Amino acid sequence: MESGIFHTTYESDMALRRTPLMRLRLILVIAAALIFPFLANGYQLTLANQIGITAIGAIGLNILTGFTGQISLGQGAFMAVGAYSSGLLAARLGMPWWLTLPFSCIITAVVGAIFGIPSLRLKGLYLAIATLAAQQIIEWLITHWTVLTGGVEALVVPTPTLFGIRMNDDFNFYWIMLLLLSATTLFAVNLFRTKIGRAFIAIRDQDIAAEVMGVNTFQYKLLAFATSSFFVGLSGALVAQYRNIVNYERFTIETSILYLAVIIIGGLGSVSGSIYGSVFMVLLPAILTNLGRALGGVIPGMSRLIPFIQQGVFGITIILFLIFEPEGLAKIWRDIKDYFRLWPFSY
Amino acid sequence: MLNKSPKRLWLFMLLALAGVLALSACGGGGGGEAVKVGAIFDLTGPTSDVGTPYADGVRDYVAWVNENGGIEGRQIELVSADYSYKVDQAEQLYSQYTTQDNVVAFQGWGTGDTEALRGRIAADQIPFMSASYSATLGNPEEAPYNFLVGTTYSDQFIIAIQWAIENSSDGSPVIALLHHDSPFGLSPLEDGRAYAEANGATVIDIAMPGGATDFTAELTQVQDAGAEFIVIQNVSSPAATLVKDVKRLGLDVQVICLNWCTDELFVSLAGDAAEGVIGASPFAFPSSDAPALKDIRAYAESKGKNVDELGVHYVQGWTTMAVMAEGIREVIKNGQEVTGPNIKAALESMSNFDTGGITAPLTFTPTDHAGNKALKLVQVSNGQWVEMTDYIQASK
Q: What is the CATH code of the structural domain delimited by B153-281+377-393?
């Protein structure tokens, strides 16, 4: 029987996986992720790939919004920068797809840092509006800079291949996604154990106090924008390579808001929360659609109403989540763990 | 008891996954003889006003065929769902229908999903039809599995320009294209402009900002350019606002709508201002005398529906599905296996196919998937779209 986790050394307190149980769980998660594609069909792999791409983007946004406290409505536009960079480099310059990924991440990081400049003077809702401007400006540039982007026409990206194997079918792409998601997660989790990550959190919690303590707020805010955009760009580039086609309509303000919803539901300031949120937001509509399909045959006359019920349920679920657990799925997961750890004598 | 906690989430996720699996599994099954066709509709999203009657048309055609013995004795099983015009959801549903339900053909809807799926359908060899009529989709080199039942936006615009040149005061009119600021809106511009320049007319293009409630600024530009004609490539609601402003400002221009504002909704929204507006509709209105409407009307009435209320988009959905079914019929008739590539080949051999007067005769070839090259212009008269010309061919 234990009453909590108590550390006796700084090493154990700072460790990422602090208990044997956590290490066991990590091994289980990795094993499940490795076995999954061999058991799943194309549809489930599509869902998994969508979850992975969403999770990379959500981790990126969470670094900025959840950890550094800089709200961003420009997520969709930054994803578009990543997608178009990757697509254009591959389509126009004939660069191999895997080489376009780091380039598009860096390009997006630079663009993100530029649009992060207003964050020196702007906070909260004002910054939200400034990033909304970024969304609009980038969208406008993409649709009107026809020579570069092809304008409103969809940009066809050459099929990514490796040693002659098509990499963007659901099965092969899963491995690319898994590798990059693992790398992103590992980086983000460790980022917040470093000086830079701590500085981000200090800015979020109280920017004036952070500055007094010697954190160069402007520099770190820009760094947060760049780091965040790096991963958001990766997520955009993956969309481009996975789908072979880039169209700006995929990266509108709706996408920005969807990603904010993902990290709010998953848990602001939580890397694992970003992943839980992505799982939730991708699977919920899929589950509702399949439920609707199953019920459509059972209750005659219902089938016409089902799409509307789905939309309603989707909204209600999100509202209920926010009411009952504003800290998101990451907190729910923590509560469940604590409940069982202290069972039966919780206090 | 320590071991319980990490498994909890996995248990939940496994249950959720099992739920998805179980539910999707019971959707399948059934007789192996039915031909499976996938479809996605917008019933709740931004284009649901026109997406709903279109979806009804597709579904009702399938129900009608099945009630009348199916295609050469085989039933069509339509697997469909609402996707709210969300591209991610369209991809999920497409992936589910092709990998779990093994559909052989697919009915899409808008520009967003059609463009996003273009690469996948080519790789998966799934013939695809939708209500997006961009000219690029009719080029098999770019989109080998897309087929267009409606006249392309480019051809619609060219037909409008042809008519404008014939009916202008001096034979070299200025034509303003007022368009939705999107791929959909700009799609006809380039081809239309090239045609106009070759024939002495001038095309200016003005974007209609989304959500605008007043188009005075745009119409001032039209007036300054001395345009005699306005062509609208937009959906009904902004188009109706525009023609109301035209009337309010007393502009002396002839408005021509391309197909997405040539519908009953436009007339009811624009009211008096719609009078005299010309429309380029690839599909016959329910009020026309197209022979195929007899079947459509009879079926709808047997289900207690009124085709006149369902409108032109219902006819459009019905006919699009009918053309796809015709391709499937050819394959079955030839004793071939019903697969994507076979349906594609059958459609490509279709020459001057008569849709019962709903559209101009359709001809698909291996090098051209824009099967419909002509349309009739219609005009609003006493609140009704009335046929005003015979079929006009888009000249190249």
A: 3.40.50.2300
ipTM of the complex: 0.81
Q: Write the pLDDT tens digit of every residue in B76-92.
A: 999 998 888 888 889 88
Asked if the Cβ–Cβ distance from B99 to A307 is below 8 Å, we say no
The tens digit of pLDDT for each residue in B121-175 reads: 988 899 999 999 988 888 898 889 999 999 999 999 999 999 999 998 888 899 9
Tell me the pTM: 0.83
- pLDDT by residue (tens digit) across A95-108? 888 999 999 999 99
- Chain A contact for B124 (CB, 8 A cutoff): no
Q: What is the dotted CATH code of the domain comprising B31-151+290-365?
A: 3.40.50.2300
By the CB < 8 Å criterion, does B209 face chain A? no
For residue B82, the chain A residue with the least C-alpha distance is A307
Residue with tokens 């303000």: A253
The answer to whether A292 contacts B87, with C-beta atoms less than 8 Å apart, is no
Q: How distant is the Cα of B301 from the closest Cα of chain A, in angstroms?
A: 18
Q: What's the gap in Å between the CA of B97 and the closest CA on chain A?
A: 8
Q: Is B186 on the interface with A (CB under 8 A)?
A: yes
Interval A232-247: pLDDT, tens: 999 999 999 988 888 8
Q: Which of residues 103-122 of B touch A (CB under 8 A)?
A: 111-112, 115-116, 118-120
Q: What would the two tokens of residue A7 be?
A: 């550390």
Are B31-151+290-365 and B153-281+377-393 the same fold in CATH? yes
The answer, for A165 touching chain B at a CB cutoff of 8 Å, is no
Domains of chain A, CATH where assigned: 37-342 (1.10.3470)
| pLDDT score of A346 | 62
Domain borders along chain B are 31-151+290-365, 153-281+377-393
pLDDT at residue B46 is higher than 90: no
* A280: nearest CA partner in chain B: B13
